[in-house]
Amino acid sequence: MITQIAQPIVEVHDLTVSYHRKPVLWGVDLTLPQGALVGVMGPNGAGKSTLIKAIMGLLPLQSGFVKLFDQDLNQVRSRVSYVPQRESVDWDFPVSVFDVVLMGRYGKLGLFQRPRQSDKEIALDSLRKVGMEGFQNRQISQLSGGQQQRVFLARALAQKADLYFMDEPFTGVDAATENAIVELLREIKEQGKTVIVVHHDLQTAKEYFDWIVFLNLHLVASGKTEDVFTAELLHETYGGKLSVLSELATLLRKNEYPSRE
Amino acid sequence: MFAFWTILVASLTAVTCALLGCYLVLRKMAMVSDAISHSILPGILVAFFITGSRDSTAMLIGAGFLGLLTTIIIEFLHRKGNLQSDAAIGVTFTALFALGVILVSAFAEQIDLDTDCVLYGEIAYTPLDVWLLGGTTNMGPKAVWTMTILLLMVLLFIYLGYKELLLTSFDSAFASAIGLRTMLWHYLLVGAVSMTTVAAFESVGAILVVALLICPAATAYLLSSRLPVMLGLATCFGVFLAISGYYLAVWIDGSIAGAMSTMAGVLFVVALGVSKVIKSNS
Question: What pTM was estimated for this model as a whole?
Fold first, then answer.
């Protein structure tokens, strides 16, 4: 079940990505609507992060192309924000919370140009939105996992983008942070912006997202949550992963999905 | 006067190395500096064969080129060759260094460049090699001029590229995502390290230059929570190494470069102790 839409904000065509000649993502044809909160889901190693890295031009494509806002990425970089996985950076790096958030403004600055007063104000404002204004002078090594994720989110907010890609923002964060992040993502969506989140918790997916993309090396499904979150498609995506399957059974019972036996 | 010039050359070298070293430490490229310091040897020799002189400009360019080539080969072996990065570093620099050793041994008579000097350097001789303007006016040791120019270039590089160097070091995926050319900054840094390494050659030699690149930066890393503080501390440590190393060498009547590197090790151990005490108290 793959819903394609007219005038997509993200268009991925025939995308194949390989690591050392082994394809890790095959022939993905995907269109995503504007103003949606999209969850990219699938088992470990399904190519979820690979998909958004490929869209952001961080990995070489073996085939296919990607269009954002119907344009090439290079033409719209300033409208796109990317939040890498928290573990991808060294949190012992000698920078303060404020320094990291200010990096969100670098894309708007020319070569050799220093951050202006207005950039600093935007960075502070972004910190306020994630409830971290009291931590601005802390070194990032003194933060908890949830606080680190909030800092990354503040940096993304400082970019003032229209399209956000977030790689597992809910991994290793406390419940309070998870709720705060979800609230923020909804706020962003309310402004007509689009947020695409790599996520692997099936329990919360249905509640968080209004559009879901199921991946397992190839594109299994993409569509509105109520159309896609079905036993059949879940099985097709996670099939064979036993631990996930048992989890799935409880989940389906809880949600009273129609049995298809 | 001799002590003054020696300490000045040593300080300029140590500070230039320390500043670049901060970025190497933060980018986890400390071993790359080791690789560069060895593999630029054939570059120096080839530059010598082509120009026929020990003119430092040609050697700087030759070494800079080899430094870049080294990192390109390492990247290639790591990415395309599917080799771990430490293995890629090990293969590359030993092979290039061996090539340099063959060149030195095969053409030793024609070259006024002996292996001991390349490997260990002799900073005590640098004040004797003066720059005579118009053949008469004494402008001071050549090494002072070379290192001053290099230090100014490195300062300018860090000043102008501060935010790009910071972001590509901290989060290269994010840097690429906003359109920064991360590989360009990587190679600019490597180029600067190669040129500094060769300029530091005649003072401290190929092996000890690694100590100057990494030790002050690693020491500063332990004690700072901000990059500007780290750069500042590393600079101070560089000057401290030059002065304390010189007097240690005079006292024991030994190698100045060796004494400086030993002081670098001592300083690091002290800083490690201090940072442990600070952490356990907080």
Answer: 0.88
